[in-house]
Every structure is written in structure tokens, then in C-alpha cells.
Amino acid sequence: MNTELKILLAAPRGFCAGVDRAIQIVELAIKKYGAPVYVRHEIVHNKYVVESLKAQGAVFVDELDEIPDDGQPVIFSAHGVPKQVPAEAQGRNMFYIDATCPLVSKVHKEAEKHHKAGREVILIGHVGHPEVIGTMGQLPAGAVKLVETVADVDALKIDNPEALAYCTQTTLSIDDTADVVAALLAKFPHIEGPFKQDICYATTNRQEAVKDIAAKSDAVLVIGAPNSSNSNRLAEVAKVYGAKKSQLIQRAEDIDFAWLEDVKTLGITAGASAPEILVKEVVDAICQRREVSVEEVVLREENVVFNVPRILRDNEQSLA
């Protein structure tokens, strides 16, 4: 089929400041301390990123007990970790560097503040997601109740509705979360929310950008990992906001060209942990099969930057 395909590239897309910072932390630690540098869990949810860091000398582990006592640093992923993890590292005199995204750390601090004030904490998030495990792990067992849906809110039983607060996972769908928050406010009028919403700027911007192109596209491809919450939400949002179909792929080899057969306008975006090189790879692969025009649709510019930890900033200057 030789019909020209119009590609609409959503912007912003791809790496956010928290992901960029986490990857920099691993790369700078390898430069400063040499290989191996251990990383607990995937530093971010992207296979390409993880494999490229492995090639530089990063060793990924599930738990700290897999790491030998060799004095090499261990890095905690951008999603954040329960308090027991740094406590265990300290108990073993491990040298650790925390790559938790500052916007996730903000949610941790909120949860702790509410707990200290005597409020029960409700967390809106996905069961089993590393960020949710990390946030719930900031407080004693049972201090946080997790809800995913409006039905979960309906089923909630709270001892003291007058002393209640909620936080949210940073990578949720803005629209779905709004429904859950509305249900919480209706059921518990005195519930306290975040000072500023917990869903991060990057998640919000990428969802707004994909909404913008979905309305003009027959189909939308989202480049991201199957275990990436924000990438999955982008694929869902695209369908809700006008694309006839949407699909999450990891890279060019996953493109189903039969699926693209009847598509005249294709929207493309990337989750917050997907590097731009994979977007280029996907566009180039499509260009080899179809006659293509590419237009970038810029919703807004992003200029957020998070500093790496001081111990690595000093190193950055010495390497410059």
C-alpha cells in the first residue's frame, strides 16, 4: 500500500527530568567508582535503557542480598523504595545512592506528614507498581489504604473520617484519578488532599499532548515498556480521545505493519522512560515501508531539570 502516511509526533514526549536524572546517576557513578555499580530493580521501566547501562557496567538486582560486600555503590531506582531498603543497606554498611524522582519523594513526604498529624492515608495507585510499594513502605504496615477505582472507594471502611488524607501515584491517568478523587471527596468531605496535585508535570504534559494528536489521528503508537504505568496510560488516553486504535510497542521491531495498513494519519508519542532514539528508530522503520510526512505537534515546552546528588555533581565538574 503506497498511500502517503502522515505522522503526527506528540511533544512533549519521552524522557522526563526524573528519568533523565536517574540515568545520569548510574552513568556518573560508573565513571566515578568504576564497574560494577549495582542497581536495585530497573532504574526506569525501559529495556533499551537498562541494556545500555548494563553495557557500561551496571548490574541490576532484585534485592540487596544479591549484592556482595565489595564496597561498590548500589543505586535505588527512580520509582522510590520502602524505608526498609535503605535501612537494610545501612545495616550492611553499604554505600548507596538514591535515584528516587524528586516528585515521588514529594509524595513520600506528604504521606509521612499526614501520618505524623494522626491522619489515615489513602493512596490512589496501581497494586504492585514499584512506586506504590515505595510510597506505602514509607509508613508502618497498615497505615496506608490503596485504592485504584471508584468501586474501591465505595468499599472503603475508615475508622475516623475526620482524620483522613489522600496521595496519588505520580504516573496515573489524570481523568481516571479525577473520578477517584471526586468519589473520595463525596464520601469523605473532610479528607485532605495534596497541596499541589501529585500526578507529575511530565505525566500531565504527555497525556495532554497525546489527547491533542489522538483527535487528529486514525491510530496512535506509544513507545514504551509494557510495565511502564505512564506509557500504558498514554495508550488508553489516545483511544478515549479520538484515535480509532492505539498500541504500545517497545521499539521498531514490534511494529505491526498490517495493523497500520488502513491508517492515513498516525500519532506517535513515547512514555517518560523511553529515549528519543527509539522514536527515531520507529519513524525510520515506517519511512522504509511507506511514503511519510512528519509533523511535530508541540503542545508546550518543558525545561524542568533535577540535579543529581552532590556527591556525583562534584564528580561531574571534575570530569568536565
Task: Give structural notes.
By secondary structure, this protein is of the alpha/beta class. The protein has three domains: 109 residues, Cobalt-precorrin-4 Transmethylase, domain 1, CATH 3.40.1010; 85 residues, 3-Layer(aba) Sandwich (Rossmann fold); 85 residues, Cobalt-precorrin-4 Transmethylase, domain 1 (3-Layer(aba) Sandwich). 39% of the residues lie in helices and 18% in strands. The protein has a five-stranded parallel sheet with strand order 10-9-11-1-12, sandwiched between helices. Strand 2, helix 2 and strand 3 form a beta-alpha-beta unit. Helix 4 packs parallel to helix 5 and helix 8 runs parallel beside helix 9.
List strands and helices in order, with pairings.
Layout (H helix, E strand, L loop, with lengths): L4 E7 L5 H17 L3 E4 L6 H10 L1 E4 L12 E3 L7 H8 L4 E3 L3 H15 L3 E5 L5 H7 L7 E4 L2 H6 L8 E5 L5 H14 L13 H14 L4 E5 L5 H12 L4 E5 L15 E6 L5 H12 L4 E7 L11 H10 L1
Parallel strand pairs: 1-11, 1-12, 2-3, 2-4, 4-5, 6-7, 6-8, 9-10, 9-11
Helix pairs in contact: 4-5, 8-9
